[in-house]
Design goal:
The chain is α/β, with parallel strands linked by helices. It contains 5 helices and 8 strands. The strands form 2 sheets. Strands 2-6-5-4-7-8 form a 6-stranded mixed beta sheet, with helices on one face. The chain has a two-stranded antiparallel ribbon with strand order 1-3. It is globular.
Length: 176
């Protein structure tokens, strides 16, 4: 019984580490969205391995706050980063809303027209929330270098300084 407090401390530390989520400099655990878990708009599987080889920006979005980071999206679009070195993903947290999937799909088609170089993906079961500790019911922006290491993260609305830091992180890694 005298070892119980040490055991509880250990459990708390392990739990805190497990829930800390993805941190700058880390390569996230591989995630694949396919079938009932989600995938590309054409229903093909998506994998976080798609980040490798290019600097990648990921917008992980609850459809209820889909416009929260439009200013950051527009700022990135204006930079016209070379597509042979840069890519962007919009992953929709489909389980975070009351909206029916067909309504979200219609909105995604409109977004695809506005941002034709963005790769849109559906996450039906909050897989990235669970596996990476991304904030649920929010708009999250993450960036990864060509090796898949996270170089930027912001859960919630990016202010102008956050957007500047995101753009600089991308620039710093385009020629790595």
């Amino acid at each position: 019984m005298k070892h119980l407090p040490k055991f509880l401390v250990l459990v708390c530390l392990v739990s805190a580490t497990a829930w800390a989520g993805l941190e700058i400099g880390q390569v996230p655990v591989k995630v694949e969205l396919k079938g009932k878990l989600g995938g590309h708009l054409d229903k093909s599987a998506w994998s976080s391995e798609e980040f490798k080889g290019k600097v990648s920006v990921l917008f992980y979005v609850d459809p209820d706050v889909k416009d929260l980071n439009n200013e950051a999206s527009e700022a990135l679009k204006k930079k016209k980063f070379p597509l042979e070195k840069y890519q962007s993903f919009g992953i929709i947290n489909m389980a975070a809303t009351w909206m029916p999937n067909f309504a979200i799909s219609a909105a995604l088609k409109a977004k695809q027209k506005r941002y034709p170089d963005t790769i849109y993906v559906r996450d039906y079961k909050k897989v990235l929330v669970e596996k990476w500790g991304i904030s649920d019911n929010n708009s999250n922006v993450l960036a990864f270098d060509k090796q898949g290491r996270m170089i930027f993260r912001k859960d919630g609305k990016l202010d102008p300084e956050d957007t500047r830091k995101l753009i600089q992180a991308i620039r710093d890694h385009l020629d790595d």
